[in-house]
Design goal:
The structure is a single chain. By secondary structure, the chain is an all-beta fold. The protein is built from no helices and 11 strands. The strands form 2 sheets. Strands 2, 4, 5, 6, 9, 10 and 11 form a 7-stranded mixed beta sheet that branches. A 4-stranded antiparallel beta sheet has the order 1-3-8-7, with no helix packed on it. The mean pLDDT is 96.
């Protein structure tokens, strides 16, 4: 099991940017693919980005391409999610999640693939 702690959320105006961070502890970080998901009130938790265990591959849904960038620093056990040109519809709790993998190049978009989750960080975008 890996413990994940998100940070970096807050209240921002539309058009601004945020960088969310996810710090992991407890297991060798380089054995885990990491994903970011978000959940708005009354909605399902949705996938927004993922990165492979070694950081060589990334994946985004079409809705996130161009504005969301995921990156990782395995030496610091950290994954970041940069969100640019924020919109009110980006308002949600953002979660990072870890999936242990033997395949260092794989990326995963399915929520059930991830066994370990952080507590989430709230992002609120005002218009």
């Amino acid at each position: 099991q890996v413990r994940l702690v998100e940070s970096g959320g807050g209240l921002v105006q539309a058009g601004h940017s945020l960088r969310l961070s996810c710090v992991a502890s407890g297991r060798p970080f380089s054995s885990y693919a990491i994903g970011w998901f978000r959940q708005a009130p009354g909605q399902e938790r949705e996938f927004v980005a993922s990165i492979s265990a070694r950081g060589s591959n990334t994946r985004y849904p079409d809705s996130a391409k161009g504005r969301f960038t995921i990156s990782r620093d395995n030496a610091k056990n950290t994954v970041n999610l940069q969100i640019n040109s924020l919109k009110p519809e980006d308002t949600a709790v953002y979660y990072c999640a870890a999936a242990h993998t033997l395949y260092s190049e794989n990326v995963y978009a399915v929520r059930s693939t991830y066994a370990d989750w952080g507590q989430g960080t709230q992002v609120t975008v005002s218009s």
